[in-house]
Amino acid sequence: MTDRTGIAPQVYTEDNIRKLDPMEHIRLRPGMYVGGTDSRALHHLIYEVVDNAIDEALAGRCDTIIVTLMDDNWVSVDDNGVGIPVGFKKEANMSTLEMVMTQVGAGGKFDNSAYKVSGGLHGVGVSAVNALSEELTAEVRRNGYLWRQTYQAGKPVTEVKKVRPLKDGEPTGTKITFKPDFTVLEPNEFSYSTLAQRFREMAFVTRRVTITLRDERVKPIPKEITFYFEGGLQSFVRYLNRNRTPLHQPVYAERDVEITPEGKQPVTIGVEVAFQYTDTATVTELAFANTINTPDGGTHLTGLRASLTGVINRYARKAGLLKEKDNNFSGNDTLEGLTAIVSIKHPHPSFESQTKVKLINPEVQGAVSQVVTEVFSEFLEVNQREARRIVEKCMTSMRAREAARKARDLVRSGPSLLESSTLPGKLADCSQHGENAEIYIVEGDSAGGSAKQGRDRHFQAILPLRGKILNTERARLDKMLDNNEIKALISALGTGISEDFRLEGLRYGRVIIMTDADVDGSHIRTLLLTFFFRHMQPLIQNGHLYIAQPPIFRLQNGKDVEYLYSEAGVNENELLARALKRYKDPDKVKVSRYKGLGEMNPEQLWETTMDPQTRTLLQVTIEDAAEADRIFDMLMGSAVPPRRRFIQTHARNVRNLDV
């Protein structure tokens, strides 16, 4: 039997309805619980366990957390809290420990007598980690004994056992040791640097808590770093601005605000905020809710921004720095050069999802705005010289914004600019656009010529850039839009720029940077990455930006040809020597070092770098926005000493190769 389309209809009966137990559901739909199956989701497993330990710290029961990375992707998180209760839970017919580890919706965060504020809200976190682990062992030091239970794929394989009495002086607490299940998650490795950045943030936001990260994969002496900060957010702001010139000392406040949401009982919201203006154009904003980083912001960040703009406008009017005929500063004017961190503590926070990327409690905006308005108004009145600097900074931003608006009007014209006399010689467009189309941003006319001849014209566009583009870390928007290469790039992509950026205007599913494998090529790639990070960041966040991987060597042995590509952690000498060992007579192998894309003919460029069947692309991602911000600021900003120190530290890793 077929329907009118000629296709046999699928059967849908009672037999098609399945009820999964919680662990099965997590394993089947991990994206609902940890945001996906990729490297970010892998690290999220550790964050969920550490967040539980931080909740113990917020409750005043924990001050030390130790995270240990071990061989074969094992990891442990050990805290000195009170330990998960282990007694028998009659209504669940199991121990409390097993209930917490295996039941979605079970936990102590629903009882305000145990946790007044916490990051864990749904009773999902640690049970999701358990479900997505090949094996997990929970060890609890409580009631004078060490207790232990082991699970596989979220299912208990042992009972809760009383292992031994606690030793004299041995602290109470919980230790979770697990190995992720890579039959569900994508195979990846834990990144020491990614975790270190996350735990540094946590230590800044949770004062007087010691967080240690230990990497036992490093032999023979493990790598270890410990974070502990007394200064909290003030220290955090100084850390972020250490490569910038501040205009004043950090403005800081920590207060409890009682707010009555409409139709609800009054709640007390803890607000901690620190911010500082610098002489750069860079904006750095971080927002936390119950110590959890909310990268997409939310109502706490909205409250901070609105109050800063309002306070500066009122002060500028009162001091006569804004005349009656002048327009008020916009939010963009008062954000430029700002480094700000806001952290709130709420007994009942609401987030957009289990991964907690955005706070949505409406009452938080008013609480943050109240605190910032009070402390910043007082700061400006008391510190007149610094206040004038801040207002002058906003004035400069406003003038630049107006100049940029005039320049941006040209870019906004879109297709008409694409059809102008300057672009046909640059952009070799493809016949198809959309998700499957891609644009190669190529260094130089020579490489651009090879790429144009070697490409597939149906879905591959080529945009050659002449020379090195402007360093956008140091340039204002109006100067950027005077740059022909940047204007061509913006027009070709079709997205606009900065606050005008619209991802839906993107004409290509993949934007691919393709530069030479030499120092100049690396510099151009860095300039382009700086531009995309500062002014088209959603392009990176949504997975559209890639880096092409052209070969660095061509080996020819008779009629046989082999290409060698760079490998992380392997320098060129080692790469070549390793490859030559595979040949019976290495001396007869002809070695060519590609110093530029233009040295390859169109067929070679297609075969090695542009053919989707054989090429390798590196996708550009942002694992840690704060660290990425710091690196770009250090390497591309105006401050020379930090960059010199970085180069001196890493210069020993650079080796030259003459072939």
Written description of the protein model:
With 659 residues, the chain is an alpha+beta fold. The protein has five domains: 22-227, Histidine kinase-like ATPase, C-terminal domain (Heat Shock Protein 90); 233-408, Ribosomal Protein S5, domain 2, CATH 3.30.230.10; 414-548, Rossmann fold (3-Layer(aba) Sandwich); 553-619, 2-Layer Sandwich (Dna Ligase, domain 1), CATH 3.30.1490; 627-654, no CATH class. The protein is built from 21 helices and 24 strands. The strands form five sheets. Strands 1, 2, 5, 6, 7, 8, 9, 10 and 11 form a nine-stranded mixed β-sheet that branches.
Unreliable spans:
107-115, 118-123, 414-424, 652-659
Distance between the ends: 70 Å
CATH topology name of the largest domain, in short, is Heat Shock Protein 90
- Biggest sheet, in brief? 9 strands, mixed
**Broad structural category:** alpha+beta
- Beta-strand residue fraction: 15-25%
Q: What is the second-level CATH architecture of the largest domain?
A: 2-Layer Sandwich
β-strand number: 24
**Helix percentage range:** 25-40%
Radius of gyration: 28 Å
Q: Indicate how many domains the architecture comprises.
A: 5
How many helix segments? 21
Q: What sort of overall outline do the alpha carbons produce when their principal axes are compared?
A: globular
Mean model confidence by pLDDT? 84
CATH class of the largest domain: Alpha Beta
